[in-house]
Amino acid sequence: EAQVTQNPRYLITVTGKKLTVTCSQNMNHEYMSWYRQDPGLGLRQIYYSMNVEVTDKGDVPEGYKVSRKEKRNFPLILESPSPNQTSLYFCASRILSGNIGELFFGEGSRLTVL
Amino acid sequence: GNSVTQMEGPVTLSEEAFLTINCTYTATGYPSLFWYVQYPGEGLQLLLKATKADDKGSNKGFEATYRKETTSFHLEKGSVQVSDSAVYFCALRRWRLSDRKGGSQGNLIFGKGTKLSVKP
Predict the structure, then answer these.
(1) Which of A4, A103, A106 is opposite residue B46, by nearest beta carbon?
(2) pLDDT for residue B96
(3) Contact A94, A104 (CB under 8 A)
(4) Strand, coil or helix: what is A43?
(5) Taking CB atoms and an 8 Å limit, are A99 and B99 in contact across chains?
């Protein structure tokens, strides 16, 4: 089954404790992206990647890091989480060629930073 | 710059009512337009799309027409069901000259979402 898998789905942590949210897709997609969803703000892009070892900032990259060492994986790293990073996070992927590629989303990771 | 504006929610309707969720956009070039739907507890999934002016996207009884003259892509459904309760996102993908060569580097820009609740 084609899917984007995120882990963990739910996490409560404390300020400053490094954490990683993993994302893996099994569709051989070149493009992967991270979004955060907040009430009243919709989805905002954090980082994206066009292919292995190619990453770029989205609209709200501050406080986050990513890496793309393998095509299928695109982890989101919070080196020193803060309460304003409490949010619902989505990973997504799609093929790169063409202008119509559907974006496939994971089920989301709800993060609470105390 | 590029942006998407959609009507504020929440929208509450009775079953079998007519639905319209307004979406307007600002973009340079020729964006592709999308509606994504998010059911409770799930990630977003593509509902329908349109790539050029006057295109009509349709799926699951939902329709939206790409209106370049009014820069709009309103979502409509003639008769909603309880199972349509979800959050709906309008989105555009920026078009850039490099896209003509086959490689699309456009990121999606989403509206803020409109929550729809359908009551039996």
Answers:
(1) A103
(2) 55
(3) yes
(4) strand
(5) yes
